[in-house]
């Protein structure tokens, strides 16, 4: 997959985004995503309503025309699950996002022949170890709980076409039962995308809201 996307300066694909709660689909959205090196991307949602998610290399912007508001946050501090996909417009190294990646033989692919992998998000292994130490100090019995019973992180799956290396699907399953899937199709390499497309200029009358940061993120110590 890294080899598939590394050569292109710009990329374009159609996408379908599905939200689920306890296995039940609650919302489906679709549109077109654009990527540009270094580290820029634009998600244009067309259905069921128009909105925009954009990373200009420094800031992440989310614009909902119907609400006349745009939310912005430094891209490095964005917790939106679309943000890691900026790797397609960066160094294209999965290791920047995944500390470990392994085949997931028990997860059926959407398309026969595709490969499905589990991704351990970078940083969660250390957090999990610290959590285990805390449980050991507080209660030896609780430390013996398996990960699914205690501090399991979100499950991240990547589906990749074996022949082409194209990214087909990303699945994020929250331990609380909430899930989100991104399905991609019709990838284009080096389509003519203007640089201006990756810069957001708020329309007149649109309010800009600076996203609140967690207190621990705002404190460098």
Structure description:
The structure is a single chain. Helix content is 13%, strand content 42%. It is mainly beta and 221 residues long. It has one domain: outer membrane lipoprotein receptor (LolB), chain A, CATH 2.50.20.10.
Question: What is the secondary structure topology, with strand pairs?
Answer:
Elements: H1 2-6, E1 10-21, E2 24-36, E3 40-47, E4 51-55, E5 59-64, E6 69-74, E7 98-103, E8 115-121, H2 124-138, H3 140-143, E9 155-160, E10 167-173, E11 178-189, E12 207-210, H4 215-218
Parallel strand pairs: 6-12
Antiparallel strand pairs: 1-2, 1-11, 2-3, 3-4, 4-5, 5-6, 7-8, 8-9, 9-10, 10-11
List keywords for this structure.
single chain, 221 residues, mainly beta, outer membrane lipoprotein receptor (LolB), chain A, twelve-stranded mixed sheet, 12 strands, globular
């Amino acid at each position: 997959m890294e080899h598939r996307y590394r050569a292109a300066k710009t990329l374009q694909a159609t996408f379908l985004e599905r939200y689920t709660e306890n296995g039940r689909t609650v919302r489906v959205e679709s549109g077109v995503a654009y990527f540009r090196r270094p580290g820029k991307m634009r998600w244009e949602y067309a259905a069921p309503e128009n909105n925009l998610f954009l990373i200009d290399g420094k800031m992440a912007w989310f614009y909902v025309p119907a609400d006349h508001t745009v939310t912005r946050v430094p891209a490095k501090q964005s917790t939106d699950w679309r943000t890691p996909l900026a790797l397609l417009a960066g160094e294209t190294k999965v290791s920047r996002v995944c500390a470990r990646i392994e085949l997931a033989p028990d997860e059926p692919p959407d398309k026969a022949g595709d490969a499905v992998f589990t991704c351990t998000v970078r940083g969660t292994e250390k957090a999990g170890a610290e959590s285990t130490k805390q449980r050991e100090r507080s209660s030896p019995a609780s430390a013996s709980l398996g990960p699914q019973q205690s501090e399991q992180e979100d499950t991240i799956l990547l589906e990749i076409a074996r022949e082409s290396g194209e990214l087909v699907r990303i699945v994020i399953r929250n331990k609380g039962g909430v899930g989100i899937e991104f399905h991609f199709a019709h990838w284009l390499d080096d389509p003519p995308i203007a640089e201006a497309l990756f810069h957001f200029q708020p329309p007149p009358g649109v309010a800009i809201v600076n996203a609140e940061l967690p207190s621990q993120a705002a404190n460098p110590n």
